[in-house]
């Protein structure tokens, strides 16, 4: 199955940077466009990528030439004009640019908010080639819903059930990577109701080329991974909230008693972010109305306080 020649990654946060890196270094995609509407996020993200590459070179895991080649293929794009938190379709000059530069696959790795992702998918469908794969790295949001937004991007005259609507929705798929992307060995691939077989195969081939094993999940809230992980993290937070055990003892129990590489509170703090944990749990709860997914009050309060984990300097731990 053909790999993309020009991959666009949307969002230069930890996930976007990791995906751009493995796509360039491991999958050897010839051109990787990295878009973020915040230029400082691009600068910070690329500095982090440079550190990861330098570490790989110093450990002999990557040659200096390969690291240099991987880095040179990454072109950053930003739109300093955008300022609102919900993107507006009329402001999507950036999507036109990704289209004009010939993107034949996109991986969206923006914030875990439905309105933001829907806006992006509308813009992508409107501006990219009619055979580009439109993939999302969402942790929990419905791929079927994002495919619906993509079809809306074609204009109000296009019916979702028409041939054109079905063909556009058929190009939307979930490719869910795990943080840190260069290290974690899995990519969960999620077909929506309308995803075509070809799109699914292209998404899997891309993930494998990036050095990942693939698992497939149906398009249910949280997919397999977060339908399992989030109740576990939430239960750990509820144990802390109810005073069942201290923060350190909760994490120690899972690390030393069950062999987890890190405790759940540390994992939420460092590799997910507590705002993202809450957003995923809300999607799970709203999507199923099942009380087992109800986010703990403490998690909501911590996000209200701006204690988002390592990225904000404080979560369950201080950084
Ligand atoms: N970015 C890139 N690489 C990193 C990293 C980071 N943030 N943190 C650590 N690494 C690398 C190190 O550089 C090292 O690489 P090397 O082998 O080339 O030297 C390797 O990871 C191992 O690191 P360490 O030896 O320092 O530390 P550990 O042995 O403790 O391993 C870990 C670190 C692999 C991150 C391990 O703690 C772990 O597996 N933790 C759990 C991570 C996890 O569960 N991630 C999934 C989160 S859920 C998610 O992403 C989905 C979303 O939808 C919620």
TrEMBL record:
The keyword Oxidoreductase applies. Residues 222-319 form the 3-hydroxyacyl-CoA dehydrogenase C-terminal domain. Residues 8-219 form the 3-hydroxyacyl-CoA dehydrogenase NAD binding domain. Pfam families: 3HCDH, 3HCDH_N. Belongs to the 3-hydroxyacyl-CoA dehydrogenase family. The keyword Zinc does not apply. Transmembrane segments: none annotated. It comes from Lentinula lateritia. This is 3-hydroxybutyryl-CoA dehydrogenase. InterPro entries: 3-OHacyl-CoA_DH, 3-OHacyl-CoA_DH_NAD-bd, 3HC_DH_C, 6-PGluconate_DH-like_C_sf, 6PGD_dom2, NAD(P)-bd_dom_sf. Keywords: Oxidoreductase.
């Amino acid at each position: 199955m053909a790999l993309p020649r020009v991959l666009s990654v949307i969002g230069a946060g930890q996930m976007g940077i990791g995906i751009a890196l493995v796509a360039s270094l491991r999958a050897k995609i010839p051109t990787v466009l990295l878009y973020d509407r915040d230029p400082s996020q691009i600068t910070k993200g690329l500095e982090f990528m440079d550190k990861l590459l330098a570490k790989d070179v110093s450990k002999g895991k990557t040659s200096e030439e390969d690291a240099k080649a991987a880095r040179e293929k990454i072109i950053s794009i930003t739109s300093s004009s955008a300022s609102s938190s919900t993107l507006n379709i009329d402001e999507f000059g950036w999507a036109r640019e990704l289209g004009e530069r010939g993107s034949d696959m996109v991986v969206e790795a923006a914030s875990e908010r439905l309105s933001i992702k829907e806006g992006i998918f509308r813009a992508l469908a409107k501006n990219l080639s009619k055979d580009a794969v439109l993939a999302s790295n969402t942790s929990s949001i419905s791929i079927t819903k994002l495919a619906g937004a993509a079809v809306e991007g074609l204009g109000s005259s296009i019916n979702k059930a028409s041939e054109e609507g079905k063909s556009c929705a058929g190009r939307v798929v979930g490719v869910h990577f795990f943080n840190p992307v260069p290290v974690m060995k899995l990519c969960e691939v999620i077909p929506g109701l309308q995803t075509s077989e070809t799109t699914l195969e292209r998404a899997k081939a891309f993930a494998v080329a990036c050095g990942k094993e693939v698992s497939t999940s149906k398009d249910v809230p949280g997919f397999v991974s977060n339908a399992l992980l989030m109740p576990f993290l939430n239960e750990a937070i509820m144990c802390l909230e109810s005073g069942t055990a201290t923060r350190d003892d909760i994490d120690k129990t899972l690390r030393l008693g069950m062999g987890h590489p890190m405790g759940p509170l540390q994992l939420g703090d460092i590799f997910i972010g507590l705002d993202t944990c809450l957003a995923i749990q809300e999607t799970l709860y709203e999507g199923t109305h099942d009380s087992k997914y109800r986010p703990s009050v403490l998690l909501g309060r911590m996000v209200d306080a701006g204690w988002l984990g390592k990225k904000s300097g404080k979560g369950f731990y201080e950084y």
